[in-house]
Write a structure and sequence with these properties.
By secondary structure, the chain is of the alpha/beta class. 43% of the residues lie in helices and 15% in strands. Helix 8 links the parallel strand 6 and strand 7. Bound molecules: pyridoxal-5'-phosphate. The site of pyridoxal-5'-phosphate has 16 residues, from helix 12. Keywords: Lyase, Pyridoxal phosphate.
Length: 472
Protein backbone atom coordinates (compact mmCIF):
# COMPACT_ATOMS: atom_id res chain seq x y z
CA UNK A 1 0.00 0.00 0.00
CA UNK A 2 1.27 3.44 -0.97
CA UNK A 3 -0.01 6.83 0.16
CA UNK A 4 -0.75 9.90 -1.93
CA UNK A 5 -1.45 13.54 -1.19
CA UNK A 6 -4.96 14.98 -1.52
CA UNK A 7 -3.45 17.87 -3.53
CA UNK A 8 -2.01 15.80 -6.32
CA UNK A 9 1.72 15.65 -5.48
CA UNK A 10 3.30 12.88 -7.61
CA UNK A 11 5.20 11.20 -4.72
CA UNK A 12 3.95 7.93 -3.30
CA UNK A 13 5.00 7.13 0.29
CA UNK A 14 4.93 4.12 2.59
CA UNK A 15 3.22 3.89 5.96
CA UNK A 16 6.26 4.35 8.20
CA UNK A 17 7.41 7.40 6.23
CA UNK A 18 4.15 9.25 6.74
CA UNK A 19 3.89 7.99 10.34
CA UNK A 20 6.48 10.53 11.51
CA UNK A 21 5.41 13.33 9.15
CA UNK A 22 2.62 15.89 9.22
CA UNK A 23 1.33 17.30 5.95
CA UNK A 24 2.39 16.11 2.50
CA UNK A 25 4.99 18.38 0.84
CA UNK A 26 2.28 20.18 -1.16
CA UNK A 27 0.24 20.93 1.96
CA UNK A 28 -2.23 18.10 1.32
CA UNK A 29 -3.16 15.20 3.60
CA UNK A 30 -2.09 11.62 3.06
CA UNK A 31 -4.57 8.95 2.01
CA UNK A 32 -4.09 5.39 0.74
CA UNK A 33 -4.00 5.05 -3.07
CA UNK A 34 -7.15 2.99 -2.76
CA UNK A 35 -9.27 1.57 0.04
CA UNK A 36 -8.81 -2.17 0.43
CA UNK A 37 -12.15 -3.97 0.13
CA UNK A 38 -13.28 -6.37 2.81
CA UNK A 39 -15.45 -9.14 1.33
CA UNK A 40 -18.19 -11.13 3.07
CA UNK A 41 -15.90 -14.06 3.89
CA UNK A 42 -13.33 -11.77 5.54
CA UNK A 43 -16.01 -9.94 7.49
CA UNK A 44 -17.25 -13.30 8.74
CA UNK A 45 -13.73 -14.27 9.80
CA UNK A 46 -13.21 -10.98 11.63
CA UNK A 47 -16.45 -11.27 13.57
CA UNK A 48 -15.00 -13.66 16.13
CA UNK A 49 -11.70 -11.85 16.73
CA UNK A 50 -10.52 -10.06 19.84
CA UNK A 51 -10.08 -6.28 19.52
CA UNK A 52 -6.27 -6.57 19.27
CA UNK A 53 -6.57 -9.26 16.57
CA UNK A 54 -9.10 -7.17 14.67
CA UNK A 55 -6.79 -4.15 14.88
CA UNK A 56 -3.99 -6.24 13.43
CA UNK A 57 -6.17 -7.45 10.53
CA UNK A 58 -7.31 -3.93 9.65
CA UNK A 59 -3.83 -2.42 9.97
CA UNK A 60 -2.28 -5.23 7.90
CA UNK A 61 -4.25 -4.05 4.88
CA UNK A 62 -2.58 -0.63 5.11
CA UNK A 63 0.89 -1.33 6.55
CA UNK A 64 3.39 -3.30 4.50
CA UNK A 65 6.64 -1.95 5.94
CA UNK A 66 6.40 -3.47 9.42
CA UNK A 67 6.84 -7.26 9.64
CA UNK A 68 3.51 -8.96 10.45
CA UNK A 69 4.77 -10.49 13.69
CA UNK A 70 5.91 -7.09 14.95
CA UNK A 71 2.65 -5.38 13.96
CA UNK A 72 0.70 -8.10 15.70
CA UNK A 73 2.77 -7.69 18.87
CA UNK A 74 2.28 -3.90 18.78
CA UNK A 75 -1.51 -4.33 18.57
CA UNK A 76 -1.54 -6.94 21.33
CA UNK A 77 0.52 -4.68 23.60
CA UNK A 78 -1.73 -1.67 22.93
CA UNK A 79 -5.27 -3.00 23.25
CA UNK A 80 -5.36 -4.73 26.63
CA UNK A 81 -8.03 -4.96 29.31
CA UNK A 82 -5.56 -3.41 31.78
CA UNK A 83 -5.30 -0.23 29.70
CA UNK A 84 -8.90 -0.01 28.41
CA UNK A 85 -10.81 -1.47 31.32
CA UNK A 86 -12.55 -4.45 29.67
CA UNK A 87 -11.90 -7.39 27.34
CA UNK A 88 -14.20 -5.86 24.73
CA UNK A 89 -12.05 -2.67 24.79
CA UNK A 90 -15.01 -0.77 23.24
CA UNK A 91 -18.09 -2.35 24.88
CA UNK A 92 -21.46 -1.59 23.32
CA UNK A 93 -24.63 -1.14 25.35
CA UNK A 94 -28.18 -0.72 24.17
CA UNK A 95 -29.70 2.46 25.57
CA UNK A 96 -33.16 2.08 24.11
CA UNK A 97 -34.66 0.06 21.30
CA UNK A 98 -32.18 0.24 18.41
CA UNK A 99 -29.97 2.98 19.91
CA UNK A 100 -26.56 1.98 21.24
CA UNK A 101 -23.64 3.68 22.95
CA UNK A 102 -20.18 2.45 21.99
CA UNK A 103 -17.78 3.21 24.85
CA UNK A 104 -14.53 4.59 23.45
CA UNK A 105 -13.40 6.46 26.53
CA UNK A 106 -12.27 3.94 29.09
CA UNK A 107 -8.58 4.41 28.25
CA UNK A 108 -5.98 6.19 30.40
CA UNK A 109 -7.32 9.75 29.90
CA UNK A 110 -11.06 9.01 29.62
CA UNK A 111 -11.55 10.31 26.07
CA UNK A 112 -11.65 8.43 22.74
CA UNK A 113 -8.33 9.96 21.66
CA UNK A 114 -6.62 7.24 23.69
CA UNK A 115 -7.86 4.64 21.18
CA UNK A 116 -5.47 5.97 18.53
CA UNK A 117 -2.84 7.73 20.64
CA UNK A 118 -1.95 4.59 22.62
CA UNK A 119 -1.17 2.79 19.36
CA UNK A 120 0.72 5.81 18.04
CA UNK A 121 2.97 5.80 21.14
CA UNK A 122 3.94 2.19 20.50
CA UNK A 123 4.36 2.72 16.74
CA UNK A 124 6.60 5.77 17.33
CA UNK A 125 8.81 3.92 19.80
CA UNK A 126 9.10 0.97 17.42
CA UNK A 127 9.95 3.01 14.33
CA UNK A 128 12.32 5.45 16.07
CA UNK A 129 14.21 2.53 17.57
CA UNK A 130 14.43 0.85 14.17
CA UNK A 131 15.84 4.04 12.64
CA UNK A 132 18.01 4.95 15.62
CA UNK A 133 16.30 8.34 15.70
CA UNK A 134 14.72 10.60 18.30
CA UNK A 135 11.64 12.78 18.10
CA UNK A 136 10.57 15.80 20.13
CA UNK A 137 6.84 16.19 19.96
CA UNK A 138 5.66 19.77 20.29
CA UNK A 139 1.96 20.30 20.79
CA UNK A 140 -0.73 22.69 21.92
CA UNK A 141 -3.74 21.51 23.86
CA UNK A 142 -6.87 22.84 25.45
CA UNK A 143 -7.37 19.51 27.23
CA UNK A 144 -8.03 16.10 25.68
CA UNK A 145 -5.31 15.84 23.02
CA UNK A 146 -2.46 16.84 25.32
CA UNK A 147 -3.26 14.38 28.02
CA UNK A 148 -3.89 11.54 25.54
CA UNK A 149 -0.51 12.25 23.91
CA UNK A 150 1.32 12.43 27.23
CA UNK A 151 -0.16 9.20 28.60
CA UNK A 152 0.68 7.48 25.30
CA UNK A 153 4.28 8.72 25.12
CA UNK A 154 5.26 8.61 28.80
CA UNK A 155 8.35 6.51 29.37
CA UNK A 156 8.72 5.76 25.63
CA UNK A 157 12.30 5.57 24.38
CA UNK A 158 13.35 8.09 21.76
CA UNK A 159 10.33 10.35 22.30
CA UNK A 160 10.00 13.56 24.32
CA UNK A 161 6.79 15.56 24.62
CA UNK A 162 6.68 19.34 25.00
CA UNK A 163 3.02 20.20 25.52
CA UNK A 164 1.90 23.82 25.72
CA UNK A 165 -1.43 24.73 27.31
CA UNK A 166 -3.06 28.04 28.28
CA UNK A 167 -2.12 28.73 31.92
CA UNK A 168 -5.08 28.29 34.25
CA UNK A 169 -7.63 27.67 31.50
CA UNK A 170 -8.04 23.90 31.53
CA UNK A 171 -10.41 22.33 34.05
CA UNK A 172 -8.74 21.44 37.40
CA UNK A 173 -9.22 17.76 36.50
CA UNK A 174 -7.54 18.16 33.11
CA UNK A 175 -4.64 20.12 34.65
CA UNK A 176 -4.17 17.47 37.31
CA UNK A 177 -4.26 14.67 34.70
CA UNK A 178 -1.38 16.22 32.77
CA UNK A 179 0.69 17.95 35.41
CA UNK A 180 0.81 15.01 37.82
CA UNK A 181 2.87 12.95 35.35
CA UNK A 182 6.40 12.64 36.70
CA UNK A 183 8.03 10.98 33.67
CA UNK A 184 11.30 12.62 32.62
CA UNK A 185 10.33 12.64 28.91
CA UNK A 186 7.12 14.63 29.49
CA UNK A 187 7.33 18.44 29.67
CA UNK A 188 4.27 20.53 30.50
CA UNK A 189 4.55 24.17 29.51
CA UNK A 190 1.84 26.53 30.79
CA UNK A 191 1.75 29.60 28.56
CA UNK A 192 0.47 32.92 29.89
CA UNK A 193 -2.18 33.34 27.22
CA UNK A 194 -5.05 31.53 25.52
CA UNK A 195 -5.16 28.36 23.40
CA UNK A 196 -4.63 30.35 20.18
CA UNK A 197 -1.35 31.69 21.60
CA UNK A 198 -0.19 28.10 22.18
CA UNK A 199 -1.12 27.14 18.64
CA UNK A 200 0.68 30.19 17.25
CA UNK A 201 3.82 29.20 19.17
CA UNK A 202 3.70 25.67 17.77
CA UNK A 203 3.27 27.08 14.27
CA UNK A 204 6.13 29.57 14.73
CA UNK A 205 8.50 26.87 15.99
CA UNK A 206 7.49 24.47 13.18
CA UNK A 207 8.05 27.20 10.59
CA UNK A 208 11.63 27.68 11.81
CA UNK A 209 12.95 24.89 9.58
CA UNK A 210 16.50 25.10 10.94
CA UNK A 211 15.30 24.66 14.51
CA UNK A 212 12.82 21.99 13.48
CA UNK A 213 15.50 19.90 11.79
CA UNK A 214 18.15 20.41 14.48
CA UNK A 215 15.82 19.44 17.32
CA UNK A 216 13.77 16.84 15.38
CA UNK A 217 10.44 18.49 16.11
CA UNK A 218 7.34 16.45 15.30
CA UNK A 219 3.63 16.54 16.06
CA UNK A 220 0.82 14.16 16.91
CA UNK A 221 -2.12 16.18 15.62
CA UNK A 222 -5.27 14.66 14.27
CA UNK A 223 -4.23 14.79 10.61
CA UNK A 224 -1.77 11.94 11.28
CA UNK A 225 -2.91 9.02 9.10
CA UNK A 226 -1.91 6.39 11.68
CA UNK A 227 -4.26 7.99 14.20
CA UNK A 228 -7.11 7.89 11.72
CA UNK A 229 -6.38 4.30 10.76
CA UNK A 230 -6.41 3.16 14.39
CA UNK A 231 -9.89 4.65 14.68
CA UNK A 232 -11.23 2.61 11.73
CA UNK A 233 -11.00 -0.52 13.91
CA UNK A 234 -13.72 0.42 16.40
CA UNK A 235 -16.29 0.92 13.62
CA UNK A 236 -15.85 -2.77 12.79
CA UNK A 237 -15.90 -3.71 16.49
CA UNK A 238 -19.12 -1.71 17.03
CA UNK A 239 -20.74 -3.29 13.99
CA UNK A 240 -19.99 -6.83 15.14
CA UNK A 241 -21.44 -6.14 18.60
CA UNK A 242 -24.64 -4.55 17.27
CA UNK A 243 -25.46 -7.20 14.66
CA UNK A 244 -25.80 -10.97 14.58
CA UNK A 245 -24.84 -11.38 10.92
CA UNK A 246 -23.10 -9.48 8.15
CA UNK A 247 -26.18 -8.87 5.98
CA UNK A 248 -27.36 -6.17 8.41
CA UNK A 249 -26.74 -2.44 8.08
CA UNK A 250 -26.02 -0.07 10.96
CA UNK A 251 -25.61 3.70 11.25
CA UNK A 252 -23.16 5.65 13.38
CA UNK A 253 -23.44 9.09 14.96
CA UNK A 254 -20.14 10.81 15.68
CA UNK A 255 -19.58 13.90 17.87
CA UNK A 256 -17.30 15.84 15.53
CA UNK A 257 -14.74 18.62 15.60
CA UNK A 258 -11.76 18.14 13.33
CA UNK A 259 -13.56 15.42 11.32
CA UNK A 260 -10.95 12.81 12.32
CA UNK A 261 -13.27 10.39 14.06
CA UNK A 262 -16.05 10.41 11.46
CA UNK A 263 -13.49 10.29 8.64
CA UNK A 264 -12.38 6.93 10.06
CA UNK A 265 -16.02 5.85 9.75
CA UNK A 266 -15.98 6.97 6.13
CA UNK A 267 -12.88 4.83 5.53
CA UNK A 268 -14.58 1.81 7.16
CA UNK A 269 -17.61 2.35 4.91
CA UNK A 270 -15.40 2.63 1.81
CA UNK A 271 -13.82 -0.70 2.80
CA UNK A 272 -17.25 -2.29 2.61
CA UNK A 273 -18.47 -2.26 6.22
CA UNK A 274 -22.29 -2.13 5.87
CA UNK A 275 -22.82 1.39 7.22
CA UNK A 276 -26.01 3.06 6.06
CA UNK A 277 -25.57 6.58 7.47
CA UNK A 278 -22.73 8.50 9.13
CA UNK A 279 -24.29 11.28 11.16
CA UNK A 280 -21.94 14.19 11.86
CA UNK A 281 -22.95 15.81 15.16
CA UNK A 282 -21.74 19.33 15.91
CA UNK A 283 -22.35 21.85 18.68
CA UNK A 284 -22.88 25.59 18.12
CA UNK A 285 -19.65 25.53 16.09
CA UNK A 286 -21.49 24.15 13.10
CA UNK A 287 -19.03 24.46 10.19
CA UNK A 288 -19.60 20.81 9.29
CA UNK A 289 -23.35 20.76 9.79
CA UNK A 290 -23.59 23.79 7.51
CA UNK A 291 -21.64 21.99 4.79
CA UNK A 292 -23.72 18.83 4.85
CA UNK A 293 -26.95 20.86 4.83
CA UNK A 294 -26.02 23.46 2.22
CA UNK A 295 -22.84 22.51 0.34
CA UNK A 296 -21.05 25.61 1.63
CA UNK A 297 -17.87 25.11 3.66
CA UNK A 298 -17.18 28.34 5.52
CA UNK A 299 -14.38 28.41 8.09
CA UNK A 300 -14.88 30.73 11.05
CA UNK A 301 -12.54 33.34 12.46
CA UNK A 302 -11.19 32.70 15.97
CA UNK A 303 -13.49 35.45 17.25
CA UNK A 304 -16.51 33.61 15.80
CA UNK A 305 -15.60 30.30 17.41
CA UNK A 306 -17.92 29.82 20.38
CA UNK A 307 -16.68 28.54 23.72
CA UNK A 308 -19.16 25.79 24.51
CA UNK A 309 -19.79 23.09 27.09
CA UNK A 310 -18.57 20.47 24.58
CA UNK A 311 -15.19 22.23 24.19
CA UNK A 312 -13.40 19.45 22.30
CA UNK A 313 -15.71 20.20 19.37
CA UNK A 314 -15.05 23.95 19.41
CA UNK A 315 -13.34 24.21 16.05
CA UNK A 316 -13.51 26.82 13.35
CA UNK A 317 -11.98 24.68 10.60
CA UNK A 318 -12.04 20.89 10.37
CA UNK A 319 -8.50 19.79 9.66
CA UNK A 320 -9.39 16.31 8.30
CA UNK A 321 -12.27 17.45 6.12
CA UNK A 322 -10.04 17.70 3.05
CA UNK A 323 -9.71 13.90 3.07
CA UNK A 324 -13.43 13.43 2.55
CA UNK A 325 -13.70 16.22 -0.01
CA UNK A 326 -10.92 14.54 -2.04
CA UNK A 327 -13.06 11.39 -2.25
CA UNK A 328 -16.22 13.43 -2.88
CA UNK A 329 -14.74 15.18 -5.93
CA UNK A 330 -13.67 11.84 -7.41
CA UNK A 331 -10.12 11.88 -5.97
CA UNK A 332 -9.21 14.83 -8.16
CA UNK A 333 -6.07 16.36 -6.57
CA UNK A 334 -6.16 19.49 -8.74
CA UNK A 335 -9.78 20.17 -7.83
CA UNK A 336 -9.10 19.57 -4.13
CA UNK A 337 -6.15 21.94 -4.27
CA UNK A 338 -8.27 24.59 -6.01
CA UNK A 339 -10.87 24.32 -3.25
CA UNK A 340 -8.61 24.25 -0.19
CA UNK A 341 -5.70 26.36 -1.34
CA UNK A 342 -7.40 28.56 -3.89
CA UNK A 343 -10.95 29.37 -2.81
CA UNK A 344 -10.55 28.73 0.91
CA UNK A 345 -7.30 30.70 0.98
CA UNK A 346 -8.86 33.61 -0.90
CA UNK A 347 -12.36 33.78 0.50
CA UNK A 348 -12.40 31.61 3.62
CA UNK A 349 -15.12 29.48 2.03
CA UNK A 350 -15.99 27.29 -0.89
CA UNK A 351 -19.37 26.44 -2.29
CA UNK A 352 -20.25 23.06 -3.78
CA UNK A 353 -24.01 23.62 -3.70
CA UNK A 354 -24.17 23.98 -7.49
CA UNK A 355 -21.76 21.09 -8.12
CA UNK A 356 -23.39 17.74 -8.96
CA UNK A 357 -20.93 15.98 -6.59
CA UNK A 358 -22.54 17.62 -3.54
CA UNK A 359 -25.60 15.36 -3.76
CA UNK A 360 -23.25 12.38 -3.55
CA UNK A 361 -22.21 13.32 0.01
CA UNK A 362 -25.57 12.02 1.19
CA UNK A 363 -26.46 9.61 -1.62
CA UNK A 364 -23.26 7.74 -2.30
CA UNK A 365 -21.25 8.44 0.87
CA UNK A 366 -24.11 8.24 3.37
CA UNK A 367 -23.45 11.47 5.27
CA UNK A 368 -26.04 13.36 7.31
CA UNK A 369 -25.64 15.96 10.07
CA UNK A 370 -27.22 17.76 13.01
CA UNK A 371 -26.32 20.54 15.38
CA UNK A 372 -27.05 21.09 19.05
CA UNK A 373 -26.86 23.80 21.69
CA UNK A 374 -26.00 24.03 25.36
CA UNK A 375 -29.69 23.72 26.25
CA UNK A 376 -29.93 20.53 24.13
CA UNK A 377 -26.93 19.04 25.96
CA UNK A 378 -28.43 19.75 29.38
CA UNK A 379 -31.78 18.27 28.31
CA UNK A 380 -30.17 15.14 26.80
CA UNK A 381 -27.96 14.55 29.85
CA UNK A 382 -30.97 14.88 32.18
CA UNK A 383 -33.21 12.68 30.05
CA UNK A 384 -30.56 9.95 29.69
CA UNK A 385 -29.91 9.99 33.42
CA UNK A 386 -33.59 9.86 34.28
CA UNK A 387 -34.87 7.30 31.79
CA UNK A 388 -31.86 5.01 31.47
CA UNK A 389 -29.89 5.69 34.68
CA UNK A 390 -26.91 6.42 32.43
CA UNK A 391 -24.64 9.42 32.77
CA UNK A 392 -23.19 10.73 29.50
CA UNK A 393 -20.73 13.53 28.86
CA UNK A 394 -21.50 16.72 26.93
CA UNK A 395 -19.97 15.57 23.61
CA UNK A 396 -21.79 12.24 23.70
CA UNK A 397 -24.96 14.24 24.44
CA UNK A 398 -24.45 16.19 21.21
CA UNK A 399 -24.19 12.80 19.50
CA UNK A 400 -27.27 11.26 21.07
CA UNK A 401 -29.43 14.27 20.23
CA UNK A 402 -28.27 14.13 16.59
CA UNK A 403 -28.76 10.35 16.41
CA UNK A 404 -32.43 10.63 17.32
CA UNK A 405 -32.98 12.94 14.35
CA UNK A 406 -31.76 10.29 11.91
CA UNK A 407 -33.26 7.01 13.17
CA UNK A 408 -34.50 4.52 10.59
CA UNK A 409 -36.65 1.58 11.69
CA UNK A 410 -34.72 -1.68 11.70
CA UNK A 411 -31.27 -0.06 11.38
CA UNK A 412 -29.31 -0.03 14.67
CA UNK A 413 -27.90 3.43 15.46
CA UNK A 414 -24.54 3.42 17.25
CA UNK A 415 -23.57 6.65 19.04
CA UNK A 416 -19.87 6.95 19.75
CA UNK A 417 -19.21 7.90 23.37
CA UNK A 418 -16.18 10.18 23.07
CA UNK A 419 -15.46 11.10 26.72
CA UNK A 420 -16.51 10.28 30.28
CA UNK A 421 -18.59 12.84 32.19
CA UNK A 422 -15.96 13.42 34.91
CA UNK A 423 -13.87 15.37 32.39
CA UNK A 424 -16.64 17.95 32.06
CA UNK A 425 -17.99 17.91 35.61
CA UNK A 426 -19.10 21.54 35.66
CA UNK A 427 -21.84 20.95 33.06
CA UNK A 428 -22.93 17.72 34.71
CA UNK A 429 -23.42 19.65 37.95
CA UNK A 430 -25.40 22.25 36.01
CA UNK A 431 -27.61 19.55 34.48
CA UNK A 432 -28.08 17.23 37.45
CA UNK A 433 -27.05 19.12 40.56
CA UNK A 434 -24.35 16.65 41.52
CA UNK A 435 -20.80 15.66 40.54
CA UNK A 436 -20.30 12.73 38.15
CA UNK A 437 -18.69 9.56 39.40
CA UNK A 438 -14.90 9.51 39.32
CA UNK A 439 -12.94 6.36 38.41
CA UNK A 440 -10.95 5.18 41.46
CA UNK A 441 -7.57 5.75 39.84
CA UNK A 442 -8.29 9.49 39.58
CA UNK A 443 -9.29 9.89 43.24
CA UNK A 444 -7.49 12.90 44.69
CA UNK A 445 -5.29 13.65 41.64
CA UNK A 446 -5.76 17.40 42.09
CA UNK A 447 -3.63 17.15 45.27
CA UNK A 448 -0.66 15.39 43.63
CA UNK A 449 2.62 17.28 43.05
CA UNK A 450 2.55 19.15 39.72
CA UNK A 451 5.29 19.12 37.13
CA UNK A 452 4.88 22.19 34.91
CA UNK A 453 6.88 25.26 33.90
CA UNK A 454 5.32 28.63 33.15
CA UNK A 455 6.54 30.54 30.13
CA UNK A 456 5.44 33.77 28.43
CA UNK A 457 3.52 33.57 25.14
CA UNK A 458 6.74 33.81 23.18
CA UNK A 459 8.05 31.24 20.68
CA UNK A 460 11.67 32.14 21.50
CA UNK A 461 11.17 31.26 25.16
CA UNK A 462 9.68 27.89 24.18
CA UNK A 463 12.55 27.21 21.76
CA UNK A 464 15.09 27.98 24.47
CA UNK A 465 13.32 25.61 26.84
CA UNK A 466 13.28 22.81 24.25
CA UNK A 467 16.96 23.32 23.42
CA UNK A 468 17.82 23.13 27.10
CA UNK A 469 15.89 19.93 27.73
CA UNK A 470 16.82 17.94 24.66
CA UNK A 471 19.89 16.16 25.96
CA UNK A 472 18.49 14.66 29.14
C1 LIG B 1 -11.43 15.33 20.00
C2 LIG B 1 -12.81 15.12 20.50
C3 LIG B 1 -13.94 15.18 19.65
C4 LIG B 1 -13.83 15.55 18.18
O1 LIG B 1 -13.23 14.54 17.42
P1 LIG B 1 -12.70 14.85 15.92
O2 LIG B 1 -11.95 13.64 15.54
O3 LIG B 1 -11.82 16.07 16.06
O4 LIG B 1 -13.88 15.11 15.07
C5 LIG B 1 -15.19 14.91 20.19
N1 LIG B 1 -15.35 14.62 21.49
C6 LIG B 1 -14.29 14.56 22.34
C7 LIG B 1 -14.54 14.25 23.78
C8 LIG B 1 -12.99 14.80 21.89
O5 LIG B 1 -11.95 14.75 22.74
Amino acid sequence: MRYLSTRGHPDRRRFCDILLEGLAPDGGLYLPEQYPKVDAATLQKWRGLSYAELAFEVLSLYVDDIPAADLKALCARTYTAEVFGSDEIVPLRELEDGVYLEALSNGPTLAFKDMAMQLLGNLFEYELNRRGEQLNILGATSGDTGSAAEYAMRGKKGVRVFMTSPDGRMSPFQQAQMFSLQDANIHNIAISGVFDDCQDIVKAVSNDLGFKRKYKIGTVNSINWARLLAQVVYYFAGYFQATASNDKQVSFTVPSGNFGNVCAGHVARMMGLPIRTLVVATNENDVLDEFFRTGVYRVRAAADTHETSSPSMDISKASNFERFVFDLVGRDGAKTRALFEGELGRAGRFDLSGDPVFAEAAKRFGFASSRSTHADRLATIRDTDKRFATLIDTHTADGLKAAREHLVAGVPMIVLETALPIKFAETIVEALGHEPERPARFEGIEALPKRVVKLPADAEAVKAYIAQHCDD
